[in-house]
Amino acid sequence: MSTTTEIRHLIDGRWQSGGGDELVDVNPSRPSDVVARGPGASAADVDRAFAAARAAADGWRRTPARARAAILLRAADIVAAHRDEWGRELAREEGKTLVEAVAEVGHGANILRYHAQEIERASGEVYESPTPGERILVVRRPVGVIGAITPFNFPFSIPAWKLAPALVWGNTLVWKPAEAVPVLAMRLAEALVEAGLPDGVLNLVSGSAAVGEAIVGHPDVDAVTFTGSTRVGRHVAARLAARGIPFQGELGGKNASLVLDDADLDLAVEQVAIGAFRAAGQKCTATSRVVVHDAVADAFLDRLAERTRAAVVGDALAAGVEVGPVVDARARDRVVGALGRAAAYATPIVAPDPYRDGPLAEGFFVPPSVFALPDDDPGELWRDELFGPVVGVRRVDSAAAGFALVNDSEYGLSTAVFTTDLGRALAAIDDIRVGVVHINSASAGADLHVPFGGSRGSALGPKEQGAVARDFFTETATVYLRG
Ligand code: NAD
Prior knowledge:
Number of helices: 15
CATH class of the largest domain: Alpha Beta
Low-confidence stretches: none
CATH architecture of the largest domain: 3-Layer(aba) Sandwich
Bound molecules: nicotinamide-adenine-dinucleotide
Strand content: 15-25%
Number of domains: 2
Shape: globular
Largest sheet: 7 strands, mixed
Structural class: alpha/beta
């Protein structure tokens, strides 16, 4: 029988029960399976978390950077040792397939290691001075107490890529994970505590949006790093801007894959399917729009349809499953609702009925679907981030028209371009306004050692990951130094 974990919060180094409303965390593949339950954090818990983070800030920033990094390295070993166990918990709690979930936990360990090593690089600059006997230095110091608010869809790796640079550069944190994934948040915090993180340096408060509101409005927050939807991110950013508090937001996406007439079609079909259907389409970088050149459109769509029908949907923990459930009933109803409305304006290419009975009816499953969209009013499948295994397709008659359609979105996170013409690939890099460009690979996917983030409606503030991660978690001081 599956166990139910008690939801607990980490405040000032002590694991404790919350004073807020009861949270019930269910397995999206089988919602009768309760993964975790317990009270969420209250406003008073958030206050205590900030008090602890503030009290710990001085000691932590004065701890030598290499000693801070050593804790991350030990935490990485602990995470790696639990990769399979926590991967199973992730698949059960969030709903991505076991293979993807185990990989995410392993990736989390690598992220911790990467940021630990970053502090061995040069961290400042030295300039000549026009004044005799003077040097000018640029030094970095931590920002202070960071509020971190994270989404459900990468419950381990996204928190890791915020917490690791924040901690290694000397900040303390109050972190709120998404309501649907408290267990994986506890696991990451447990690894850091076991690795020797001092009390109060990381505080974990789980709960609903109200806990996020309390973090954002807290008088003691020095900066907020957020990943989530554009709607919530802009709301949070506006509140913080009114108080002059720095904000970093990685937000929503409506990512297109562009298949040109010189593309390797087998490659394009497979990579579009991977981009669209892995994690049940719930990656910020997932492909949800496809733009295909007329000359290859029929052949491409025949093969994509075949590939879509072949995708095995089922319990995230079952072997051989490619598409697990979406995260909760609300997400399923949102996507199924949009698919129902699409019948009025779009042409179904693969559009199975929702799972109303049978083995997939209990879980939050959505059938992978592909629709051809009209040019005059392509509708919500073209415009809105649905966050499900759904693709809307439009045709173009040139590469330039393709670039224009890829740009036809308020979002600008990621894109994939399939072409064998280097000149067109180079033009795509210049002309498509997104933060991540994949040439001949799926739109989803981000390496940990390079900058990650979107443009336009997909981001606000400095990018994450890679060496640039330190930009948000440090502030510089310019020092005019004379003897
Ligand atoms: P969401 O915006 O609903 O929630 C994100 C986090 O914000 C959660 O912890 C939530 O509880 C909290 N929150 C909600 N309302 C709040 C408020 N008023 N004040 C403060 N905090 C609040 O997003 P989600 O459904 O968890 O995640 C999916 C979204 O995240 C998608 O839009 C996806 O594209 C985006 N995302 C972006 C990236 C990226 O790097 N660009 C990565 C992953 C996910």
